[in-house]
Amino acid sequence: MLSIAASELIQIFRNRLVLVTSLIIPVAVCLFFVRQHETFADIGSLGYIAAVVMFTIAAFGLYATAVTTLASRRQNLFLKRLRSTAASDTGILAGLLLPVTVIAVVQVTAILIALAVVAGKPANIALLVVATVATLAMMIGLALATAGLTNSPEHAQVTTLPVTLGVIFVATWVGITGTADLAWLKRLLPGGAATELTMNAWNGGVAVTESLALLAPTLAWVAIAVALANRLFRWEPRR
Amino acid sequence: MSTTPVIEVDRLNLTYGDFHAVRDLSFEVRPGELYALLGTNGAGKTSTLEVIEGHRGPTSGTVRVFGNSPRDRRAVRPRMGVMLQESGFSPDLTVRESVRLIGRLSGRTDDVDRVLDIVDLTDRAGRRVSQLSGGEKRRLDFATAVYGTPELIFLDEPTTGLDIQTRDAVWATVDRLRENGATIVLTTHYLEEAQQRADRIGLMHQGTLHREGTVAELTRTLPAVIRFSLPAPAPALPLQAAVDADGKVVVETFGLQKDLHLLLGWAQDHAIELQGLEAGPTRLDDVFRAISS
């Protein structure tokens, strides 16, 4: 698994398009949010900025890159090649997704630290970590499912739009309007509960037990995404 | 050496929707032999290989490789090398990185430079796969298949697109592996390769094993052929003959030596030159033509 991950990391750094779309653009967007944190804190709260930053990295950096990578590795039969070795399917997928996941974790951590430095520390760091892990897990699951519907890296530009735009919309909606009304709908939409959890972790003022209940919808999305991936994921291109 | 088959295929069936790609196929590959699986396009060779290599599950029937399910990668893959028909290397990795990665994942150990040397890619080691020619990609593929000297090697059209020198080098490597006891499963469109090298041949047609045996066994059932051109006018031939599309006289015979002797004697007596004279046993090509017609 680690040798697959190492080769994947090399490939990411050699492919400028992936480097720009997965590393640089999301970070640039996040830095804008951090720089303008006073404006955005007025619109929502600091927790809203944390949630938007996290979802920007998770959607564009992690999810879209993972879908593109998997589609590309399938299209040029690299997946089939890996499957003709002794590596297991889980090991292959883990190896392919490890580098983008690690990069996303590093990015989210760095930007949230930057936010904490300019705007003050979050109320509950442990809860923030839990929210981040749950969000990234959900996006990886959705990436595996989406990859099954994506024929080529070019096709990924279309197939990833519903989820990327969807979660950013949900995070913004929940982040700005809160969950005072339409709470059930907002929490059930993918990313809604994770956004609320992130805001609670950053802003504080909500009991931890109450916040942890918000993990349930996110984990349910992980389960749904994994079940979909099991049905949809393909290792070889259609002939 | 053990005589337990390396590969056992028993009543294998494979269907895609309504299409029955492989029907009740049974055969064995024994240790140390070179078994050529040949067939017309769409005969089911690739589907069969994909099941044996573990890329696909059978619809029914069983396939065992070294006595294990081919899908048990951990048990089977370290002992077998696969040269795929289509490359499947990442264009952004170099030749050396590709061999190291796939080699390491095979579960065998070897020296990357040694393997690159075998396929004459040493001077391409630092190049990206995207910059390789088609023939160089085939060689890279072969390198990953023979990495760590596996006991069983699948060669799916190994020499397609290779120049003569490289083709000879590939076969020289295969011969060395065979001296060490390796078992080879080959598919090829170059029938002379199979004719020269295969211990046994399985001829697939429409999803079944149409014929199986040594080259001699397969060609024995068809007559040998004598071909030549006659200057016109010529006296009547001493044996039954036909004229082919190119105007050549074609004699089909099960008694090649006797009929050839008769013909040469007749030509000598009549002072006739048999232009472009060829005589020989049936070639594998003819066996192929016989099943597809």
UniProtKB/TrEMBL annotation, chain A:
GO molecular function terms listed in the Swiss-Prot or TrEMBL record: ABC-type transporter activity
Protein name: ABC transporter permease
Source organism (scientific name): Micromonospora endolithica
Swiss-Prot/TrEMBL keywords: Membrane, Transmembrane, Transmembrane helix
Lineage of producing organism: Bacteria, Bacillati, Actinomycetota, Actinomycetes, Micromonosporales
Segments crossing the lipid bilayer: 17-34, 46-71, 92-119, 125-149, 161-185, 205-229
Membrane topology field: Multi-pass membrane protein
Subcellular location: Membrane
Pfam family, one: ABC2_membrane_3
TrEMBL record, chain B:
Pfam family for this entry, one: ABC_tran
Record organism: Micromonospora endolithica
UniProt key word rRNA-binding: no
Compartments where located: Cell membrane
Segments traversing the membrane: none
Residues covered by the ABC transporter domain: 7-231
Annotated membrane topology: Peripheral membrane protein
Protein's UniProt name: ABC transporter ATP-binding protein
Main localization, broad class: membrane
UniProt keyword terms in alphabetical order: Antibiotic resistance, ATP-binding, Nucleotide-binding, Transport
A GO term for molecular function: ATP hydrolysis activity
GO cellular component: plasma membrane
The keyword Cell division is annotated on this UniProt entry: no
InterPro entries, per database record: AAA+_ATPase, ABC_transporter-like_ATP-bd, ABC_transporter-like_CS, ABC_transporter_ATP-binding, P-loop_NTPase
